[in-house]
Amino acid sequence: MHFRKAKYISVLAALAVSIGGCKLPSIVARNENRTVPQQYAGGANGNATDVVGWRQFFTDPDLIELIDTALAKNQELNITLQELEIARNEVRARKGEYLPSVGVGLGAGVDKVARYTNIGAMEANTEIAPRREMPEPLTDMGIGLKTSWEVDIWRKLRNARQAVFNRYLATVEGKNFVVTQLVSEIADSYYELLSLDNQLDVLKKNIEIQSNALRIVKLQKEAAKVTELAVKKFEAEVLKTTSMQFMIQQEITETENRINFLLGRFPQHIQRNASSFISMAPLVPSTGLPSQLLTNRPDVMQAEQLLAASKLDVKVAKAQFYPGLGIRANVGYQAFNPAFIVKPESILYNLAGDMMAPLVNRNAIKAAYMNANAKQVQAAYNYERTVLNAYVEVANQMSRINNLTSSYELKSKQVEALNQSIRISNDLFMSARADYMEILMTQRDALEARFELIETKKQQLTTMVNMYRALGGGWK
């Protein structure tokens, strides 16, 4: 008899497996391309190396203090940290899904059945002990353990937990990426602020030069050497240059406020030393090898973790086609009188198992399976795009560093030549060998050249920051 029951159970289990596993929908999976060039275009700038931490890379004490404040108070970063905590809790929740669920229960109740019913008639003729009838109404008390467990025979639950864990790791990398962006943005804004300070200083010096030239022209007009037209031209130039101060001051205010916003505080003065801006030598980090981007850049690591999670999602969706095995068990004591509840006769227990295979809702499971595969293909393309973008960013910044270095050298020579031309034009004008328009044009050209030199220096420093960010730095 027992052999026959076991045989029936085996047949039913095999039938469930065959029903659940047949005719899986066909999918076209995609394996990501992890191949990257061995070197950057034009050759790598250095051997393989780890990215230096931002504290070692940025040496300006005022900038370091700003970054420290932002890492503690920036709202976006703190929001990301809470997302990280949420992801960590989801991992904890998933961990318990493939473990048995065990609970303890305590209950009590009372039951009064009608006398003229089958149950009432049986209880009326039932004796608990000799000459002791069933009590009425009948109380019921019990205490015991209850457990249920879905046996993870297809690794569905474990794969789901690992997918959540991969997404948690992606959140960690996302936090690192936010830190990278935050450090870089503060550094960019800080260098922009220094450049504006230098532009304002150059403007004030140029106003002084133009005012001196205006005073000379007025004296020459009194000596009938020039006309009123020359005086008005010089006055207009002084007014034009003076008005530019207010535009630069407005840009300084907005840049300071942007930095304060990143620091999570209301507008206030940004401590800085602009006098050393022009002499700052950009620190260019070693690019290493393109393959290092796969482990150094947070966005690449994030895309990789999301890709791994999407692959596990496909396995989880596939396991839904197969039958699930559940086990339930209860054990405890139950009696109508507290005096009997701990007696051996009051022990109760049950053990049951079932295997369930999808039959009617297979279309919904197919749709979920196909969606999971489509998302996996998306994740593969996203990973390849992220790697390609990382390579292109580094290549662009390498080229930009070289071109800006050459441009800065030439602009420095241009500024020096124009500074000399201002002195020469003034001397020629005093000796009536040059007219006032030549002085005006020379001063204007010199001002523009100084502004361009400051802008080029700022671009050099910004490119240094962009290169550091492109290589994956900023968060360590």
Give a description of the structure.
The chain is an alpha+beta fold. It has a domain at 32-98 and 175-290 and 361-470: Outer membrane efflux proteins (OEP). It is built from 11 helices and 6 strands. It has helices at 2-21, 54-57, 61-73, 75-95, 118-124, 156-222, 228-262, 293-296, 298-319, 362-430, 436-470, and strands spanning 101-111, 127-129, 132-133, 138-151, 324-335, 347-356. The strands form 2 sheets. Strands 1-4-5-6 form a 4-stranded antiparallel β-sheet, with no helix packed on it. A two-stranded antiparallel sheet has the order 2-3. Strand 2 (127-129) and strand 3 (132-133) form a beta hairpin. Helix 6 packs antiparallel against helix 7 and helix 10 (362-430) runs antiparallel to helix 11 (436-470). Residues 1-12 and 17-21 have low confidence and may be disordered.
Short structural description:
The protein is α+β, with helices and mostly antiparallel strands and 476 residues long. The protein is built from 11 helices and 6 strands.
Can you identify the CATH class of the domain at 32-98 and 175-290 and 361-470? Answer: Mainly Alpha
- What is the alpha-carbon Rg in Å? 40 Å
Main sheet specs: 4 strands, antiparallel
- DSSP helix count? 11
Distance between the first and last residues' Cα: 69 Å
The low-confidence parts are 1-12, 17-21
Residue share in helices? 55-70%
Give the overall form: elongated
Describe the strand arrangement of the main beta sheet, using strand numbers: 1-4-5-6
Order of helices and strands: HHHHEHEEEHHHHEEHH
Tally of DSSP β-strands: 6
Overall pLDDT, averaged?
A: 85
Q: Which CATH architecture of the domain at 32-98 and 175-290 and 361-470 is right?
A: Up-down Bundle
Strand content: 5-15%
Which structural class do you get from the secondary structure elements? alpha+beta
The fourth-level CATH homologous superfamily of the domain at 32-98 and 175-290 and 361-470 is Outer membrane efflux proteins (OEP)
